Each structure stands twice: as structure tokens, then as C-alpha cells.
Amino acid sequence: MRARVDAPRASDQRFVTSDGTALHVVDSGPPEAEVTTVLLHGWTLDHTSWDPVAPALPGRVLRYDHRGHGGSAPAPVGTATIARCADDLAELVAARVPTGRLVLAGHSMGGMTIMALAEQHPMLLDRVDGVVLIATSSGELAGSTLGLPGPFGRAFVAGEKAVNRQIVRLRRAELLKRTEVVRPGLRWLLFGKRPSWRDVAMTAAMVGRCHPVSMVGFRDSLDEHDRRKALAGLAGIRTVVLAGAEDRLTPLRHARVLADELPHAELVIHLGAGHMLPLERAEEVAAHITALH
Q: C-alpha distances in angstroms, 18 versus 122, 127, 217, 246?
């Protein structure tokens, strides 16, 4: 597979949503392409999580940072929700890609945003040729213990809530200084067997760029996410579900639910991989997206 290198158009790097939130956008490839791929990143990450994938994709590629993430503005009070992310996606597509065919690929919360799009903006799906749902879930995430048994799992949930209460008090710079400290935890939580420490460091840097208050707000929205019924909106669209066998954040059972609700979809399980498939299995992810063009 030949990687394509296209410089982003500088004039396109900022998009302001209807509620005044500025999103950081990276738009590459020929603007006149018949198909545009839209890449949606996961919670606490940003568009750079797609760096190993985007250059290998054909046509035009549009990726951006969700509100409160990366180079985008913090989410205004009450808007750090998956539902609002779906509205942002619909607005961005309407403004930047008003015509032509689309392929949507969503990792983790990005996949949930696609589900919310199907629920809130079903007419937009008429333009979608394919969907790739990567390490994501249609719901039942509340109280996840990451596979930890009994008291250990309960302690984890209680500890996370305590940390979330404190994290909103941290300044952005203070969070950034802690990225080296959190790398071992991220490596255990998000990656499978024998990950690249470069990928772990890259992920820690992304987490460090996430706005602390927005991060906590989105955590609540993840717990509330329940869009199993919304999957019906993808029934007529070519769909691929990708999962890591070692994923602790969205274990395999979530991928199997998606496959059950979307019997036409292809379910691909990557042995030895964790949650960060766009980094851990970049070539395979790019190939599945490309196949839907």
C-alpha cells in the first residue's frame, strides 16, 4: 500500500460550530474527490491518532478534534456530550463537504458519534457509502471495571470518580506535565501485547492535550451512551466492525453486540491488539477503510 502525503490546507484548519465552538480541522487530499473519508477520534485523543492511517487513504480525508480535545476549544458547559459531537459532525460535513459520497470511520467515542449521527441526522446517511466502527460500543459502559474482579473492580470505579472530581481543578499545563507518569497506566489500559512505546508516548501526549473539564464531562456522556436502536440506521450501509482481542476499555462483547445488531457487517478481531487499533494495526485499519471506497 503506497502512502500518500498531502499537506493540510491551512485555510481549512478552523471551523466554528453553531454554538460558537472552534474546532481544529485537518483537510487533505483533492477537494474534488468523489469520496471523502471522515475520521473521528476517541475520547481524550485527537486527530493525530489517525496519523499512521490517513496518509494511506485514497481521495479526500477530513479529520478534526472533537470539542474539548486537541487543538479545539473547550466544550462549553453542558455540551461535552456524544449527541453534541454528532451535531458538530453534521455541521462540519454540511459546510466542508456539501456534496459527494462519504466514508465514515470512528474509533471508540468516534464510533459512538457515528451512531448518534444515525439517530439525530438520518438524512445524512443517504450519502454514506461505508462505515468502519473501531473499538467502540453501542452502550452499557457505565460502571466498567475493565475486567478487574470483585473488590478490585469496585475500588477502580470509586477511584476513577474521585480522580474525576479532582481533575477539573488541574490547569492544562499541570496535566501536560503528568504525561510521562501516566504512560504505564495507558499502556496497560489501551494497548495489547508488545506495544510500541512511541505509540504509548504519542497517546499520553494526546491525553495531555485534552481539556480536563471537557474530559470529565464526556466521561459522563460515555456512561449514558445507549444507541443500540440507532444502529438500525446503518442497516443499508456497508459496515465493518474492528475489535482488539485484548481491549480492556471496550471488550469484545461490545463488538459482538454491534455484529449481532448489524448482521450484514463484517466483524474483524485483531488478536494481540488492544483499544488503540489506529496505532496498533494502522495498515489493516487503512485497508478496511479503503475497501469501502
A: 19, 22, 20, 39
Grid cell in block for residue 128: 454514506
Interatomic CA distance for residues 229 and 106, integer angstroms:
18
Distances (CA, A) of 168 to 110, 200, 213: 23, 24, 5
Phi, psi angle pair for 75, to nearest 5°: -75, 125
**Average pLDDT value for residue range 175-191:** 73
**Stretch 13-19: mean pLDDT, rounded?**
96
The whole-angstrom separation of Cα 38 and Cα 231 is 19
Residue 58 confidence (pLDDT) above 70: yes
Strand partners, 26: 63
Tens digit of each residue's pLDDT (9 = 90 or more) over 62-71: 999 999 999 9
Max Cα–Cα distance, the chain, nearest Å: 56
Mean pLDDT within 228-252: 96
Residue burial 135-152, b: 16+ Cβ < 10 Å; e: rest: bbbbbebeebeeeeeeee
As a whole number of angstroms, the distance between CA 120 and CA 135 comes to 22
Structural domains in the chain plus CATH codes: 10-142+219-291 (3.40.50.1820)
Residue 176 has pLDDT above 50, yes or no: no
Mean per-residue pLDDT, 191-217: 92
Mean pLDDT of the chain: 88
Pairwise CA distance, residues 182 & 59, whole Å: 37
